[in-house]
Structures are given as structure tokens and as C-alpha cells.
Design goal:
The protein has helices at residues 2-9, 46-58; strands at residues 19-21, 30-32, 63-66, 72-76, 96-98, 108-115, 122-126, 137-145, 152-158, 164-171, 177-183, 193-195, 206-213, 221-234, 238-244, 253-259, 263-268, 273-277, 283-287, 292-297, 302-306. The protein has a six-stranded antiparallel sheet with strand order 3-15-16-21-18-19, covered by helices on one side. Strand 9 (152-158) and strand 10 (164-171) form a beta hairpin. Helices cover 7% and strands 41% of the residues.
Length: 314
């Protein structure tokens, strides 16, 4: 359901389930159990109800983007790029401060790259700032003004033990500002352990490098992107996608919300009551207190219908 929600939020008009029905005696990720015959469709799985609820809540509704419910701080503004050192490759252009494209603040960084060889190449920009990230950082992201190249943007972090791990922020997309982010909890696969250790971040964290990696390996060409506001998120990971109920958010929205671990969020709303629908279709009315509602969330997505506070995330 979470993957389907993200596809809907990205603009997909239709989301198809992997398989409609299991075979008798063989589970195949279907919406209907196999039963005694391929002709029997009377035993629906919980996923069938969840898929039906997903469609009834957000189908044919305009996606309004991701919403932030996690505490977060700006780790680097890029108003000044003095903390970023000369790049590797030696022939690459240094990171430059610019006002040509700015997400917020007084400046952003322009990053140019040149991939001239038909093999795996990358450009890495080391960070020499002394700032430590919060120890409860669970997700990190960056605003990126893309060039349509499809290359990969990585961030390398160093922990208290000196281990350096690489995290893929995402693929460089079309022109315009897009927020690329990744979870940094859990173990990292072998190929992204730059300085090895136990494979996961421990203790205080520091930014080590920002990397543009060619994709696919062997791709050649030149280009430039802009980056701004490296942001770190703290605490349990919460994800939320918003969809308009009517022609605009002022007519109401549906917020689809889930978390990787059970936690409680505060939703800001202009409504006196909000309606929360679970993935099985059961609905609960929650009363707002001074424009806020406390909502328990977890791995199972919930749908919250309400009128958002103007300019607010909830």
C-alpha cells in the first residue's frame, strides 16, 4: 500500500496489483486466496480491502506533495560553500555559490560534472565543516534543481567510530526543485561501505562527501545541478502524502500517513473534527483541540480527511 501511495503521489493515474489471485495451495501475492479451485474468488485477503480503501480514498485526486511531520533542522544552507573542498576528480569544477537558482535563503550551490569515459565515474565533493548531526537523525535529504540527467546523488556520512557509509539520496530529475531524501537507519550493503565497520551508523555523525555518480555506469556527458538546504530529520520516520478532495486544498484534503515504527504525530487542521480511516475501511472521528489533533501512526497507513491550516503541513 505504501508503494502504491507513493506512485499515486508521483502522478500515476493507475496502480495495478501484482497478482489478482493465488493458485490453489500456492501463495502468489494475490488479493484472493487460492482456495480449492482457480475459479473460486470468494476468499478475499486483507490486502484486497486495503487496496479498495486506497482507491476509494485517493483515486482521481490531485496529489499535493509530501508533508513533514518529523522534527528537522537545516545542516547546510549552501548560502556559502566555503566548507566544501576541491572535488575528486581533480579535473572537475569546484562547487560554486550562485544565485541563479535558489530554493531558499540568499544562495545555493552549483555542481558541475563531466563524465568522459565509458566506465563507472563519479565526482565527490568533500565537506570540511565541523558541525555534527544530531545523534537521533533517522533521515536526511537535499533540495535539488535537476538537469534531467538521471544520474545518482549520494551522500557519505562518517560516524563516531570513523566508519564512512554511502547513502543514495535519489536520481537527478527534471529542471525545477525536488526534494531527495533517504533513511539512514539500519545496515548498509557492502558496496556502500566506504570505510568499513559494522555497516551502520553509530554515535555522532558528520557529513563526509556529496557525490554525483554516473547512471547507468558508462554514461558520458556533461551537466550541472543546483543544491540547497541539506536537511536532517530526527526521531521515528514518518511519511505523509497529501491529496486534494476537491479542486483545491481549501475544500479539504486526504493525508495518507504511516511510520516505520509506532509513534504519535501532531496534525494541524482548520477543521473542528477530522476523519481517520484505517486500511480495513473502519473510520474514526477525532476532535481537534485548538487546531491540533494527536494521531497514533505506525507501519499500517491511515487516511486522515480534514481541512488543512493555511500554510501548515497538517
Amino acid at each position: 500500500m505504501r508503494a502504491a501511495a507513493l506512485l499515486r503521489s508521483a502522478g500515476a493515474e493507475r496502480v495495478l496489483w501484482y497478482n489478482l489471485k493465488d493458485h490453489p495451495g500456492q501463495a502468489c501475492y494475490g488479493l484472493v486466496r487460492g482456495g480449492e479451485s482457480d475459479a473460486l474468488y470468494d476468499s478475499l485477503k486483507p490486502s484486497a480491502a486495503a487496496f479498495r480503501v486506497l482507491s476509494s480514498q485517493i483515486a482521481n485526486r490531485e496529489p499535493l506533495g509530501s508533508q513533514d511531520f518529523m522534527p528537522h533542522v537545516i545542516a547546510a544552507t549552501f548560502d556559502d560553500v566555503g566548507d566544501w573542498g576541491p572535488p575528486f576528480q581533480a579535473t572537475a569544477e569546484p562547487m560554486q555559490s550562485t544565485t541563479a537558482q535558489v530554493y531558499r535563503g540568499t544562495g545555493a550551490a552549483r555542481i558541475a560534472y563531466r563524465f568522459g569515459q565509458p566506465d563507472n565515474e563519479y565526482v565527490a565533493f568533500p565537506y570540511h565543516g565541523a558541525r555534527f548531526l544530531p545523534t537521533d537523525t533517522s533521515r536526511i535529504g537535499l533540495w535539488v534543481y535537476g538537469d534531467g540527467s538521471g544520474h545518482i546523488l549520494h551522500l557519505r556520512l562518517r560516524d563516531a567510530a570513523g566508519e564512512v557509509l554511502q547513502y543514495r539520496l535519489g536520481f537527478i530529475g527534471a529542471t525545477g526543485w525536488h526534494f531527495l531524501s533517504t533513511s539512514i537507519t539500519g545496515a548498509v550493503e557492502e558496496g556502500n561501505r566506504i570505510v568499513p565497520g559494522n555497516g551502520q551508523l553509530d554515535g555522532t555523525l558528520q557529513i563526509r562527501e556529496l557525490v554525483i555518480d554516473d547512471h547507468p555506469d558508462g554514461a558520458t556527458g556533461t551537466g550541472a545541478i543546483y543544491v540547497d538546504e541539506l536537511t536532517v530529520f530526527q526521531g521515528p520516520e514518518v511519511y505523509a502524502e497529501r491529496f486534494a478532495v476537491g479542486s483545491s486544498a481549501t475544500e479539504g484534503v486526504v493525508d495518507l500517513i504511516w511510520a516505520l515504527a509506532p509513534t504519535t504525530i501532531t496534525l494541524s487542521t482548520a477543521a473542528a473534527n477530522v476523519t481517520m480511516t484505517s486500511r480495513d475501511g473502519s473510520a474514526t472521528s477525532l476532535e481537534a483541540d485548538d487546531g491540533q489533533v494527536m494521531i497514533a501512526v505506525g507501519p499500517a497507513p491511515v487516511y486522515v480527511r480534514h481541512v488543512p491550516t493555511p500554510g501548515g503541513h497538517g
